[in-house]
Amino acid sequence: MSNAPRGHLPAPVPGLASALVWGAGQLINRQAGKAACFFVCFAALVGWEMGTGNYYAGMDFDARGNGGFFVKGLWGLFTLGSQAREVTLTGLTDGDNSIILLANGLIALLTLALLSIIWIWSIRDAARYRASLNAGGERESSLDYLKRLWEGAFAYIMLSPGMVLMVFMSVLPIMFGILIAFTNYNRDHLPPKNLVGWVGFDNFGAIFSVPAWTQTFLGVLVWTFVWAVVSTAAAYGFGFLQAVLLANQKVKFPRMWRSIFLLPWAVPAIVSALVFRSMFNGQFGPISQWLMDVGLTDERIYWFTDASNPNLARGIALLINLWISFPFFMALVGGVLTNIDDSYYEAARMDGASPLQQLRHITFPVVHRTVAPLLILSFVTNFNNFGLVYFLTEGGPDNADYRFAGSTDLLVTWLFKLTLNNQLYNIGAVMSLFIFLIVGTISVWNLNRSKAIREL
């Protein structure tokens, strides 16, 4: 016989009860344990809001002055403040800090989004359980439900703390940066003295409507692509060549050579950049002095500061990046080569294939198929290679046609100058959004075309 309760209660009724008061539907369904769990979450939400606000102001209540964490947070997110601070003889008066309001509003919004998952869960659970009872299903105790939930959703339960942490450590900063792109947050609107306001797509329009911004953006964008493509291809090609040579049985002491070639990778890239910056110093660097001593040049070469020859600085930067990054691909390709079956080469030699043909038709396809996803990651790394460019050239030499950028600046170093040096946070946020869209689109497109990804 069925254990369904007497009387027929429509399934939406417990769901509606849980929508109004979390856990009320479970209580109607006589599941006190589940009702208590959902109600505790509801009480925590209400208690948090009431405890951080002042809801006893009567008719004088307003969200800014009396709202709790969630109400004031959402108010601040939409308005970015309504009262600016003023300078007086005693200091700054009380007022709103737009950036803090924006951050608190995002925290409140994301917290409500996570809590809404529990709210929807309580509604669906109450309605589904009542529908099951109405259909003649057996009653299930709260303890049995928790056991079934633990067994069926163990993976999700274990992953949920990481998901919550990711929301506040990754999603929150990304959303903050995106929203800044739609404000006028710059050196003319700096909190706490000034309020920041929403300006819509004006910042995006400025990039393409103001000639100085457009020329700088397109110039830096083209160089960034050239830098990323050439750096990745050169490091991969040279690392592949070194790995193939070291795998040749005619090479003596391959481990010694491999250890020597890995040294540039072992040294931190920033340290290498600073050392090379000193060596290529146009005024005091030993390389310019040596070229003069041997008679190759009549005067010192200003490698990184000669505005009349920016390609010199770009070429040197590419060579130094090659020196730093090729050992990674050498080690990677070397590991792949050890896993290629010798029978492939034996069959190729029996068919009369030359060493170059074996390299082209056996070695390279096998290696490239394995390394392709890492090539995409290397491209993304070089696209955003802030450390090497900034510590080596600081974006120089200067370019009179660019706005706040030099001839070797990448998008990421230009973004740094816009924000930290010139306090144009809104334009910097637009640049960061462009970088995200460009890199994300290219990465997804290439990964989808990669056989290594399609076979996962």
TrEMBL record:
The record places domain ABC transmembrane type-1 at 221-446
> Per UniProt, what is the membrane topology?
Multi-pass membrane protein
GO cellular component terms, semicolon-separated: maltose transport complex
**Which subcellular locations apply to this protein?**
Cell membrane
Transcription regulation listed as a keyword: no
| This protein's UniProt keywords | Cell membrane, Membrane, Sugar transport, Transmembrane, Transmembrane helix, Transport
TM stretches of this protein: 99-121, 153-183, 220-247, 259-280, 316-340, 370-392, 424-447
Q: What does this protein do?
A: Part of the ABC transporter complex MalEFGK involved in maltose/maltodextrin import. Probably responsible for the translocation of the substrate across the membrane.
What is the name of the protein in this document?
Maltose/maltodextrin transport system permease protein
**Origin species:** Glycomyces buryatensis
